[in-house]
Amino acid sequence: MKKKLILTTSLALALAITNIGQVRADDLKDEMKDENKIEEVMNEKDEKVTESYIVKEIKDDYVILNKKGYEDDLYQVEKSAFEKMKLEAGKEFEITSDGIILKSNPAQFGKIYEIKEAAKEEATEETETAETDGEVPTLTYFNIGGEPTRHAEVVAAINEYLDSQDAGYHIDTVFYDWGDYQQKLQLAVNSGEDWDLAFTANWAGPYKTLADQNALLDLNDYLDNELKDAAELIDDRMLEGSRINGPLYGLPAAYPGVVAANQFVWNKEYVEKYDVPYEDLKTTTDIEPYLKEVKENEPDAPYPYVVASDYLFARENPVFEVASGIGVKEEDGKLVAYSIYESEDFKAEIDQMKKLYDEGLINPDAPQLQPGEADGSYESNLVGQAEGEPGSQAVWSQPDEEKLSSIIGDSIVIDNGKATGKLVSVNSQTENKEQALDFINRMFTDKKLQDLLSYGVEGEDYELEDGKVKRLGESTEVYDVAAFQYLSMFNRTPMAGGVGLGDPEFDEEVKEFESKLVASPTLGFNIDKTPIQGELENIEATTSKYFINIKTGAFDESYYEEFLDQLKTAGIEKAITEVQNQLDAWEK
To answer: What would the pLDDT profile of 302-344 be if each residue is shown by its tens digit?
Structure first.
């Protein structure tokens, strides 16, 4: 590989900072012939580097892109560089440059040789399913998460099983990394790519955006026929919460009477050592004395309440949020819109979080800690928060790191957000609609298929121990996926160490969940954002700026007051008035 140009003069630094022209080695030699400040110069020809970039934002004169697979790496390119190519958010391009990046915000390329549209991805040998010779169609099913080990082998086993059941089609599960999934799904929709099924959610897609683009099939007409068996497993309130002003564009997670609950997740070792009555502790105030006890007595646990930037901020009393910062409550038989962040309940909870943070019970880097980085050492914490269904305790536990769980507060809210937290959707343009609907119905009801999708092949990826699943290796050795996206955890074999259907402990946990369910009074209500689109975007931007610090306790009173002032400037009062008008019309 040719060596890059290395500049050590203040002149070179100035050129980079001010972005003056295209810096070439020969030009610099002429300008600096008296200083001999160039340590190494590329001779012969420039090095060329080709990498993929995704369009993030289109401005009047330039385009902002992020490097594929690196969402936070932003680059700026003049719009004219794309010549007559069609520009749209989510579109992928291949850029060939000299590999020199000028430091600015966003970054810029030293020199661009070529920009071209990325070719559509084709299945590799590893992901291709068995040849069908045109006998049966193969459905493309988009899944979230990195491509698992032994993917091709598991897909082949799934298709072999589908053949044994005379399904009349095959399936190809296509995985996209967590950070890339939304862009990939949008790109598939915008480009007209062939696909049949996809995992969708209010945080992946997102679901409502795809529905607004008419990209998803309305499933209402199929609930009594093609999807009848699956629909019978889903709570009616979950179906209602997944509808968008009538149409149902995805099937939510299944189990009658149960949805995921906000829970405290406990370190079992410390719970037993300090005799923590964890099942009776419902709030952050309740857990405070036990946090202090562990902090005082465990040198390895200086910050016993583990908190990260994605902290759930679960609360004792149910909150029915219909837009960022805008809640709805019932007063004298009427639905009333209000500012969540100005409510007494909200202020009391953030003050408690601030107290825990100031007393050193919460890790000081909580606002900066990214999702997935908060686990740390098992011994370093007593408790955290997570969302899960009955039986999730086994999922959260790891070898030698057994965990316990308890529901936060006295209610489990069923609202639009909970209902649309994970769904399966069908492409509105699919040519395999009948087969796609049949696969969904089987995925919800066929335990063998559910186990294949979730765990892989018995004897190769897992074995049964006392009738439960025990993996035969780490994720680098055996098939391992985010099985929650297959939506029917109660119809799959439970993990070893956990409980499942038929286990007395499981049945008791289900009863507890069912007894705490509270349906949101706005279930099925979706705001028409058109009249307040700008205000809602401003509120969201303001919330994104302030809320992480506030919910993790890393703030002071002036910061909170500044947050409220900025919300007013963003237009929250106008937004609340419009939401109230729509609620009044919806109730009639």
So the answer is: 999 989 888 888 888 888 888 889 999 999 889 999 999 999 9
| Cβ atoms 219, 391 nearer than 8 A | no
The per-type count for the chain, helices as H runs and strands as E runs, is 18, 24
Q: CB neighbours (10 Å) of residue 85?
A: 11
Pairing of the two strands 49-58 and 62-67: antiparallel
Backbone angles phi, psi at 551, to 5 degrees: -70, -25
φ and ψ of 30, to 5 deg: -65, -40
- The pTM for the full model equals 0.62
DSSP 316-327: SS---EEETTEE
What is the C-alpha to C-alpha distance for residues 159 and 172, in angstroms, rounded to an integer? 9
Provide the pairing of β-strand 170-176 with 138-144: parallel
Quick one: pLDDT at residue 442?
Answer: 97
Q: Which amino acid is at 420?
A: T
Residues in a beta bridge with 388: 261
What is the Cα–Cα distance from 257 to 238, expressed in whole angstroms? 9
What pLDDT is stored for residue 448 in this prediction?
96
CA–CA distance, 472 with 457 (Å, rounded to integer): 11
Q: Which residues of the chain have pLDDT under 70?
A: 1-46, 60, 69-72, 89, 103, 120-134, 255-258, 371-380, 399, 497-502
Per-residue pLDDT at 26: 46
**What distance in Å separates the CA atoms of residue 337 and residue 207, rounded to the nearest whole number?**
24
Q: Quick check: helix, strand or coil at residue 190?
A: helix
Query: How many C-beta atoms lie closer than 10 Å to residue 149's C-beta?
Result: 18
In this prediction, residue 71 carries a pLDDT of 61
The pLDDT value given to residue 283: 94
Residue 478, token pair as written in the block: 């055996």
Please return the burial class of 485, using the count of CB atoms within 10 Å of its CB with bins 0-12, 13-18 and 19+. Answer: buried
Collapsed DSSP state (helix, strand, coil) of residue 25: helix
Q: Are 197 and 141 in contact (CB under 8 A)?
A: yes
Tell me how far the alpha carbon of residue 181 is from its chain's centroid: 9
Q: How many CB atoms lie within 10 A of CB 530?
A: 7
Question: Strands, DSSP E only, in 397-549?
Answer: 403-407, 412-414, 423-426, 462-465, 468-471, 517-519
Note the pLDDT of residue 255: 63
Which of 411, 185, 457 has the alpha carbon at shortest distance from 314? 411
Is the C-alpha dihedral spanning 194, 218, 335, 519 positive or negative?
A: negative
Give the helix ranges, DSSP H, for 66-113.
none
Helix (H, G, I), strand (E, B) or coil at 235: coil
